[in-house]
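# step 3/5: fold
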Amino acid sequence: MKNGVNTSFSNKQPVQITPEMEKRMRLMANLIIDRIYEDKKNHTLKFQSNSNKQYNASITGVKMKENTS
């Protein structure tokens, strides 16, 4: 594929991953994630790594909801 990868979450519209986003995702994938938490104000998931240096990132577009199954 050229210039990024198309991916989607559940049945929502596909998200275009830019090369910069892919680079950041690959960096984040190499980290040891120490903490995952919900940012209640912005309704996003965030994760934090304390290895080497503090690294904060957020996953936007993921709405938190209770599992009712």
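# step 4/5: annotate
The beta strands are 6-7, 15-16, 35-39, 44-49, 55-59.
# step 5/5: archive (pending)
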